Prior knowledge:
By secondary structure, the protein is α+β, with helices and mostly antiparallel strands. Helix content is 35%, strand content 29%. A hairpin with a 2-residue loop joins β7 and β8. α1 crosses α3 and α1 packs antiparallel against α4. It starts with a strand and ends with a helix.
Amino acid sequence: xxxxxxxxxxxxxxxxxCCVACGAAASTCPIERVSHFMFVPLFxxxxxxxxxxxxxxxSERGARAREGEPVRAMSGRIIASWVLVVGAIISLxxxxxxxxxxxxxxxxxxxxxxxxxxxxxxxxxxYGELEFGRARVEEVDGDKIRAAACEETSDMEDAVERxxxxxxxxxxxxxxxxxxxxxxxxxxxxVSSADDPMDPFEVLSGGLVIAAIVAxxxxxxxxxxxxxxxxxxxxxxx
Length: 238
């Protein structure tokens, strides 16, 4: 669970104070807390103060008034994380929109070997009780396109893509305009081509997520290093 959702604790510089137990000079340090998801710091949390007396060894942990808080050291990392996460989401949304428009263009410019995810119930010559099926372009003759469908159907789009390897059910040849109309009506759900490059928006979105996670790991390292000289504080707070 800590790997999915957890808290980083970052130790700020030590400040002088007086021990509440013996009155001797002691030290106190503010501990900044940040919530993270999959190592990515996202939300600031409270400050804790840990005090330690070198003479009587008394230690104390508590919270102080908000006006006594130092400048947050993790704010920049949180902002950077959100920029990367929001960028990944926007890239994914834009990529989905562009892919949908690209699929419509692919249908009109179909080539031999293109594969479609279809809804068999909307094709008169096909049958199938389940939602999704697959078809493949077998022949292109001018404006006429002949395809064949797979016998496998499924209620899950990704499942039928994995299962279909042979296409033995003939489909009546149709013109490019007719296929474009079928796509608009939802009879053709998506189009894939063996020659298609990887979606650049998908690559960008994945790269931003990876960058956010890597930056989160550096944040984790920085938080752990801030306790390098204070094992007691780390044991009490982290």
